[in-house]
């Protein structure tokens, strides 16, 4: 059963459509990530859900309760929507103690002082801040402020929690740690969560379902693993950092789902035909492959093609290369092998790793 149901949501700012006819559902207790480049409408969707923005059209239901319906004139106040929000800017209140910050949503709801403190303390323990109750909220680190914001969003036990780039301000190590902790916390407390992020690792790390947005519309959506493994469009492939190369079909491989693609002069590949592909020879197509699926080595092997290292960058455990193959630039990522610019190499790619899109 879905806990959040958004249907045909539309929000315009002047003549700019920030969100255009967006529909998706989030099953109870599951997690969804809204992913996409800056300005694609992620925050606007969250704000519409929270009641902080009035949509121009559509229906929003939370927990079976219709909170917005343009046609019927329903528009519930934010505080009646019973959800928690965590923003990128932690927005902890500097004039309050840590415990007062966390207890605030309970105060607004008229909960008595003793119960407020007890619940705030318990939630602080949950997020790893036991003993911080009476500290001034600004006298803690950025990571701790983010935990305070998290505790404050969860203290009134909302069944839906919205996160807007909530981990973006944390350093890489803390962000990874919080990602794992959030996942555990979400499973333990059982709330339904929507994470807004432009970071794909965060989206795939936190969410069961990923919705990729492009200019106010849904580009692709589905189970996280599927969306990642089989990008359905060039936009998705590029967003996920794949090689996207222009080429021409040289025809389907009879009796298979494969198609042969000419990329450079003599360089061609065989790949899996994506949805809606016309394999007729001569049709322009896009051949996509993950950098990690391109193997660069010193020696030739069966099916490999010769190339030249055009650029390299050292990333610590890995190295990224741009390999020139017959005038075609292909990016590769693999454990550091020490190739340098100008090195003659051999490049191996499996047909199963190429996706050919219209
Ligand atoms: N209050 C506003 N008035 C006018 N335009 C707005 C307003 N809020 C958002 N927009 C525009 O709507 C579009 C979507 O904005 P939104 O904040 O939802 O993007 P986003 O996906 O959250 O981006 P980011 O990753 O940068 O946070 C943008 O083009 C933005 O400039
Ligand atoms: Mg945003």
Fold and architecture overview:
There is one protein chain. By secondary structure, this protein is an alpha+beta fold. It folds into two domains: 2-234, 3-Layer(aba) Sandwich (Rossmann fold), CATH 3.40.50.300; 243-357, Nucleic acid-binding proteins (OB fold (Dihydrolipoamide Acetyltransferase, E2P)), CATH 2.40.50.140. Helices cover 23% and strands 37% of the residues. The chain has eight helices and 21 strands. The chain has helices at residues 42-50, 98-108, 113-126, 142-154, 172-189, 200-206, 224-229, 234-239; strands spanning 2-13, 16-27, 31-35, 57-62, 65-69, 74-75, 83-86, 160-164, 192-197, 209-214, 217-223, 243-252, 258-262, 268-273, 284-289, 295-297, 305-314, 318-325, 328-335, 344-348, 355-357. The strands form four sheets. It has a six-stranded mixed β-sheet, with helices on both faces. A five-stranded antiparallel β-sheet has the order 2-1-4-5-6, covered by helices on one side. It has a five-stranded mixed beta barrel with strand order 12-13-14-21-15. Strand 12 and strand 13 form a beta hairpin. Helix 2 (98-108) packs across helix 3 and helix 3 (113-126) packs across helix 4. The longest helix has 18 residues, at 172-189. The chain is globular, with a radius of gyration of 25 Å. The two termini are 35 Å apart. The model has no long low-confidence stretch (mean pLDDT 92). Residues 13, 18, 36, 38-44, 198 line the site of adenosine-5'-triphosphate. Magnesium ion binds next to helix 1.
């Amino acid at each position: 059963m879905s806990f959040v149901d958004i249907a045909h949501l539309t929000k315009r700012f002047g003549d700019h459509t920030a969100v255009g006819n967006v529909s998706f559902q989030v099953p109870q207790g599951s997690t969804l990530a809204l992913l996409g480049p800056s300005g694609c409408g992620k925050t606007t969707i969250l704000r519409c859900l929270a009641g902080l923005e009035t949509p121009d059209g559509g229906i929003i239901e939370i927990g079976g309760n219709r909170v917005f319906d343009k046609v019927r004139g329903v528009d519930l106040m934010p505080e009646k929507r019973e959800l928690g929000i965590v923003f990128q800017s932690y927005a902890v209140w500097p004039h309050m103690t840590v415990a007062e910050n966390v207890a605030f949503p309970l105060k607004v709801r008229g909960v008595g002082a003793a119960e407020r403190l007890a619940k705030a303390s318990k939630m602080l323990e949950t997020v790893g801040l036991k003993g911080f109750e009476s500290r001034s909220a600004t006298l803690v680190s950025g990571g701790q402020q983010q935990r305070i914001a998290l505790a404050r969003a969860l203290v009134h036990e909302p069944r839906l929690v919205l996160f807007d780039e909530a981990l973006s301000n944390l350093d890489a190590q803390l962000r990874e740690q919080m990602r794992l902790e959030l996942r555990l916390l979400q499973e333990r407390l059982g709330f339904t969560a929507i994470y807004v992020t432009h970071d794909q690792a965060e989206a795939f790390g936190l969410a069961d379902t990923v919705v990729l947005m492009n200019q106010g519309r849904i580009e692709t959506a589905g189970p996280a693993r599927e969306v990642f493994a089989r990008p359905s469009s060039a936009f998705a492939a590029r967003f996920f950092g794949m090689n996207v190369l222009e080429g021409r079909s040289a025809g389907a491989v009879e009796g298979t789902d494969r198609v042969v693609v000419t990329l450079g002069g003599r360089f061609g590949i065989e790949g899996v035909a994506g949805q809606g592909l016309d394999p007729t020879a001569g049709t322009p197509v896009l051949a996509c492959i993950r950098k990690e699926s391109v193997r660069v080595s010193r020696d030739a092997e069966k099916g490999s093609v010769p190339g030249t290292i055009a650029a390299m960058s050292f990333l610590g455990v890995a190295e990224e290369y741009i390999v020139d193959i017959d005038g075609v630039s292909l990016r590769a990522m693999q454990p550091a092998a020490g190739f340098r610019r100008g090195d003659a190499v051999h490049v191996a790619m499996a047909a199963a790793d190429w996706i050919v899109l219209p």
